[in-house]
What we know:
The complex is a heterodimer of chains A (114) and B (118). Chain A has 114 residues and is mainly beta.
Amino acid sequence: AQKITQTQPGMFVQEKEAVTLDCTYDTSDPSYGLFWYKQPSSGEMIFLIYQGSYDQQNATEGRYSLNFQKARKSANLVISASQLGDSAMYFCAMREGGDYKLSFGAGTTVTVRA
Amino acid sequence: DAGVIQSPRHEVTEMGQEVTLRCKPISGHDYLFWYRQTMMRGLELLIYFNNNVPIDDSGMPEDRFSAKMPNASFSTLKIQPSEPRDSAVYFCASSGGFRGALPSYEQYFGPGTRLTVT
């Protein structure tokens, strides 16, 4: 079974608007963590944000925030005030228990329009 | 502080040749991961090490693939013999340290090696 599901293969967003990228996950372990990575066309994988399952508050890092809904098993990424440089592929990933291994979703391509 | 370093950045080789990819993790990180990324299969974990010891190699495709970590600052991924279906981008990533009092699980990726096998 897929551990991470990203249902949006591609999205368009207008510059300066916010965009939400969906991610749902599947685990039976009470301790887990969720990650988002950005992969621009240049190819590197850039770590954006992390949310632990026991964290009380939703994670935020600058213009990135993670909308963590534990009961729904969703960990959506919100990018506020989109910029042209945000155009990239975005991957959601999860670790379980004390394991450092990550399971990645298929990714969502975001294109920011001027 | 330097990030994860990978070499070569690009490799073009002929089928049947041996290929060696190299990785230097971030200093102080005690986990090292090798991934492969293709359009068809996405990002796949091949193998990972903790304190230079292989922990999980279940993602290694077959015996043609091998990985070593002789010390904390160097790892290799070798393909022998290479085949056209091995063409992909190979990433190395490292992780470790602490976020406050808790382990830091974030993985930091190298720039990748784009391998083309003809």
